[in-house]
Amino acid sequence: MRLFRLLLAIAFLLAGVAVGALNPQPVSIDLGFTVLRASLGVALILALLAGVVAGGLVLVASVVLPLQQKLRKRP
Fold first, then answer.
1. Which of 1, 13, 65, 67 has the fewest CB atoms nearer than 10 Å to its CB?
2. What is the pTM of this model?
3. DSSP string covering 41-60, please?
4. Domain boundaries along the sequence of the chain
5. How far is CA 9 from CA 4, 6, 24, 63, 71, in A?
């Protein structure tokens, strides 16, 4: 199982490097109060990461916390 996780992590790392290397075009992201400048590959990877984190937080708030509260109430 540990070897599988290592291979999966390496595969995702290589995929991230490939996305970054194949998309070197500069982009500007206007947030209203500031402008971020980065390469397209970095912007894509950061957007994907932000989506994963936001989805994880929603999952924790909507599923995990209510289940933990139910378990605490059980005798």
1. 1
2. 0.72
3. HHHHHHHHHHHHHHHHHHHI
4. 2-73
5. 9, 5, 23, 26, 33
